[in-house]
Amino acid sequence: MKRITILGSTGSIGTQALEVVDQLGYHVTALTAQSNAKLLESQARKYRPKAVALAHEDLARGLEISLRDTGITVLSGPEGVAACAAMACGCVLNGIVGIAGLAPTIAALQSGNPAALANKESLVAGGALVTNLARARGLPLLPVDSEHSAVFQCLQGVPENALHKIILTASGGAFYGKSKAELAKATAEDALKHPTWAMGAKITVDSATMMNKGLEVLEAAWLFGLPAERIGVLVHRQSVVHSLVELADGAVLAQLGAPDMRLPIQYALTYPERLPSPAERLDLSSCGPLTFEEPDNEAFPAIALCREAFRRGGLAPAALNGANEAANALFREGKIAFPDITRLVSKAVEAAPPGDADTLEKILSADTYARELTYKYIK
Question: Are 353 and 307 in contact (CB under 8 A)?
């Protein structure tokens, strides 16, 4: 029976992944969380993994006491999370939000574990490092994001070199159709009202800025080996077509499904098999017309900003990602306005340190620099 490690098991992706594990009857090797000790304890008692880890070190001691009767090893801090990722298993699903997920991805691959990535920052900030490591170890990078899973599914059976273009679909987020003037007055409460997906706060705000889609362009470039200019974006409000691929002969293939993350999660865990899923079934007769349109790049400049960071290369994507994490949090805390997110991220991209993103240390240093720069601009 396949053994799975889930990083970020108390978050949106992690809890849905455990629903999939229940359906499949897989065993759990390890679980990790940022700070939700109570839910992690409950999960540990249900799934009886070999180890759990809390990134928040101050809370780990209490969890260790709570789980003393179980024999489960309790680890702490980023090192503990990476140690869980390195434990031998059939697949490590990385559902950690943010740059904190990069080191565990590297740890999983270095230990010979296939990686299923819902943590897009692993490829946005560390694309060359992660893909080179996976290639050297002969390990797959399995996409969990619905868009990249859709592309991956469409490419099954497609001859090598037949891919011409990728088209990522975007819901448009909470502020679809808003003008620049309206966006200047947008609040975090408004931004968190996503029309179709139930996600964590950071990713939901990224969806509102369209930064999420820009980051996904970079992620797709690394996953599928295409230049960013051959990765398009279309706004598709219904979130039924999860992405498309255009092939060399002009044929376009699309993957459709209900907006339910359990489907791409399960495909990553069972690949190349297809098994019954707890995900909702799609009823095309009731989902209404399907529409597609170009994004409003004037009101939402984040996609173009991500393309520019990718064009610059080196540590610019790491700086972009770090600044966005900082600015996103500042907006949610009410300390900056909505348009300030992309404004501050743009400054960080322009000021990105020189050098290649070829070591974890360089990437994390660029990330820290971009965050500090972002905080400096609002003082």
Answer: no
